[in-house]
Backbone:
């Protein structure tokens, strides 16, 4: 069963941004969990519980969320923009990059991962990284 978990990362301390009502309406009747803001072990567990992580940002300069997902062994689909190609540096092996603004390209790459557990596991394992900075996940309050 397909389940969506929505992280609202540009939010207040309470974990909800102004767009929450719109998003809840958009996903009404679907299996969606709005997590709010997560930190530390709770954040690590949320990432690790996923099968695929997708980020639509076309302006990430560092791509910390991509690093976090990859460190948890989760397959990543992200825009080929900003600093993301430096992280997902083997397109199709360590993750999938789509052309910014090309929804069909994004959906094609997402669909491939959703339809094949073998591909998800292969890409997630290949993308699993051990950056020292990711210890922050375990030490965040």
Residues:
């Amino acid at each position: 069963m397909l389940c969506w978990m929505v992280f609202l990362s540009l939010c207040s301390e309470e974990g909800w941004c102004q767009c929450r009502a719109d998003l809840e309406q958009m996903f009404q009747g679907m299996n969606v969990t709005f997590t709010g803001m997560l930190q530390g072990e709770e954040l690590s567990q949320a990432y690790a519980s996923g099968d695929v992580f997708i980020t639509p940002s076309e302006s990430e300069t560092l791509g910390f969320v991509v690093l976090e997902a990859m460190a948890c062994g989760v397959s990543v689909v992200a825009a080929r923009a900003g600093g993301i190609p430096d992280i997902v540096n083997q397109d199709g092996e360590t993750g999938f990059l789509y052309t910014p603004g090309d929804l069909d390209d994004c959906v094609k790459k997402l669909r491939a991962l959703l339809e094949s557990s073998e591909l998800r596991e292969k890409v997630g394992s290949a993308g699993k990284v051990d950056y020292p900075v990711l210890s922050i996940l375990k030490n965040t309050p």
